[in-house]
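Worked problem 6 (solution included).
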Amino acid sequence: MALLLSVALTVAIYAVPYGHYVAWPLLWLSTLVHELGHGLTAVAVGGSFESFVLWPDGSGMAAYRGAPGRLARAAVAAGGLLGPAVCAALLFVAGRRAGASRAALGAFGVGLLVADVWVVRNLFGWVYVSALAALLLLIAFRSRGPAAQLAVVFLAVQLALSVFSRSDYLFTATARTAQGNGPSDVAVVAEALVVAPYWVWGGVIAAVSVLILVLGVLGFLHRRAPRTR
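Solution. The predicted structure is:
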């Protein structure tokens, strides 16, 4: 039911008049998760997450230090591209149960508050991340179980859709942001690993993203067999 309602709400957002105003915060959400994917991957490979900015046009940028070596640079670039799929899959799995949904919303909200203090470096990004964190924590601690599950699955659906709606970025060599143009993430991967052009790496990352989403949805839909005595 949570999945069906989430899909219905998503269709309504894009079908009703002025629904695109609601869609913009969802675009910012996918950018947020994308850039956090870069930063957290940098930390995982031994670097440090220095800063993150989010602009109203839906673009963003994450800066990091350290993470030396070609493999580390490629991993950080790919981490942002895979971030929405990984986050969506985790939310789908959490959405199976009310308690896990509340825990996921609480963890997400607290993580965003930490990011606000730690890495967010522009006013628009700070306002958006703060508002989203407050909303997630409010749902986590004040809503009933079904409402928390609906919120989690709705977020998962939006992030899953962003994997496809923004897939053109996987096949371009240039990233266009409010700060100007630069090499795209797949171009960075191609430059670091050399062995294939950027569009090949874009196809590989797209396939991995779809696989991650499929595993997440299967985990959400899986039902345990009844126990027998």
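Discussion: The first strand starts at residue 48 and ends at 54.
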